[in-house]
Amino acid sequence: MTTALRGGLHVRNLRKAYKDVLAVDGLNLEVQAGECFGLLGPNGAGKTTTIEICEGLNSADSGEVEMLGMRWDSDAGRLRQHLGIQLQDTQLADKLTVFETVRLFRSFYNAGPTAAEVIGLVQLDEKRNARVGKLSGGQKQRLAMACALVGDPDFLFLDEPTTGLDPQARRQLWDLIEEFKASGRTILLTTHYMDEAERLCDRIAIMDHGKVIALGTPRELIASIGVEHVVEFSAGNSSQPLAVPPLRQIEGVREVRGENGTVQLLVTELHRAVPALLHELNRQGVPLTELRTHSASLEDVFVTLTGRHLRDE
Amino acid sequence: MSEVIIPDPRAAEAARTPPRADWAEHPLMRLTQVRFLEFIREPEALFWVFIFPILLAAGLGIAFRNRPADVLKVAAVTPQLTQSLRQEKLLDVAELPAAAADAALRNGKVALLAVPGPNGSVVYRYDDTNPEGRTARILADRAIQRAAGRVDPVASSNQFMREPGSRYIDFLIPGLLGMNLMGSAIWGMGFAIVDARRKNLMKRLVATPMPRHYYLLSFLLSRLVLLVVEVGVVLGFGTIVFGVPLRGSPLDLVLLCVLGSLSFSALGLLIASRARTIEAASGLMNSVMMPMWIVSGVFFSAQRFPDIVQPVIKALPLTAAIDALRMNMLQGASLAQVTPQMGVLAGWLVVCFGLALKLFRWR
Fold this sequence. Notes:
The complex is a heterodimer of chains A (313) and B (363).
Chain A: E1 9-18, E2 21-31, E3 36-40, H1 47-54, E4 62-67, H2 72-81, E5 83-86, H3 98-107, H4 115-121, H5 137-149, E6 155-159, H6 167-182, E7 186-191, H7 194-200, E8 203-208, E9 211-216, H8 218-224, E10 229-235, E11 253-259, E12 262-267, H9 270-284, E13 288-295, H10 298-306
Parallel strand pairs in A: 3-7, 3-8, 5-6, 6-7
Antiparallel strand pairs in A: 1-2, 1-4, 8-9, 10-12, 10-13, 11-12
Chain B: H1 11-16, H2 27-40, H3 43-63, E1 72-76, H4 79-85, E2 91-95, H5 98-106, E3 112-116, E4 122-126, H6 131-147, H7 168-198, H8 201-206, H9 212-242, H10 250-271, H11 278-295, H12 310-315, H13 317-331, H14 339-359
Parallel strand pairs in B: 1-2, 1-3
Antiparallel strand pairs in B: 3-4
Helix pairs in contact in B: 2-9, 3-7, 3-9, 7-9, 7-10, 7-11, 7-13, 9-10, 10-13, 10-14, 13-14
């Protein structure tokens, strides 16, 4: 067993352009040792390019990456021994069994648990001799996780680990990630699922157009938009349209957004805003057809910052 | 510095796993084994590499088997001519009325028709562009002249050449062996590499500490393991079923097969070094292999092509491999005698491997 390497990830002024697209535009990141850091953003925000540069799979046009106290240009071989990597969209060889696949990956690392131990860790014992091609999506993701963990890494990269999985498979994978986190090692995770980021990540950077546009703990980010709740409702019809401007005057309403026939109010105090809203609708004589509320989430943070949803293409 | 270990609920089971020798867990060993497993779990590949050459050799061997000299069918219109012609054992003579005889000649039922000419002469009617017609002419004339009293001035006798080594199947088996070495090396390398690239599996492997040259080396090593089986199947079939001779040193033959396979593998590696899709790769592979199937002397001698293109044909790796295999198997040539062919193969190996390493796309 090798001694765990401490030290996080430091990215300074990273730039990467593809032909005419600037994928990463002067990005700065500090991931502390032992934290689970989330990189959030819509598709095309530059998350994957950033993570691949950090993994040593892609080269930056300019900027610096330092990880576990090492750099790619001078310590690539040593660095790889300490990283666990799970890539987006990797298909492992269909014709091999789970055990053969993990054993292959294990052979590349100087130290780590045995192939059988890692298969146990990701709860694939029953599938140990099954062909990879016969596994379900969730089982394949857990196998990818096994291949990432087999070198006993000090730093784990997870690029959209639960995309396309059903809720149960996602929760199984989250448990696995939390187990790894509990052992005190560092994770950099990209996702565009809000619940995943809120549950797993200690800190989050929201990326858009190749830059970090917000950084903090999930609570800090949600608090930064100054609202605690979101009220969504539909009201009015063609003969009795809703007058929107008076809504802005309701006490505690910070922002009013209209979207697909529903109206969203970002509010600080739900118990005052809802009665006031009902009173206002009553005053206008407009019938209410739907009313929902939820606590402000990272999704609301993202929409507030960019005017777009995280899942948008 | 602190030591962190993933909690391990499966330690008990792990303890039961018998310890393995270190070499078995060497990355090169693992990569090679995985490559081998992936290959033998692909039924189509097994067919093309092992079954297809046997079917081809069997089919061609039967089609071109050596038969006793053919008896030629000829016709005559008079009893006297028929009588004379029947003295020749290689002719099957039919006596027909004139109209029927003409019809039989026109539709190819007989190769030649003998009719009486003026003043006791004989007229042979046959198609002089047809080898059977020309042969029938010689045989028929000899029979008629001898029946009329001709005596050959020079006595002659025959010695027949039908021994193994000069038959078509003897020519064919080394050709098929060379073709098989090329096909399995190029397909084996090409599809596996492009598939791994397409599925991002190559990128995933590159993200581990795996030394990259091990990845490429594992393809060559698994090739050599399969080579034993491939060569064994073709040669075993040829020698057991058709009695194809192995006159050269078996060790030399093995060395030639290994060198040939390595050269073709390097060529396969080069073909697969950039392609991202199976379609692009198979197009490239076919355009490289197809011309060699035709000009390199698999099914018929490469000497049949014009002299001006011979230097080009001789520089092709398949020509060199097949020539060397034929010289070893049929003429018992030593390695020294096939130096030019080995030089060609070694040249392709070095150039293709060097270029492939430079061009190879790892993601």
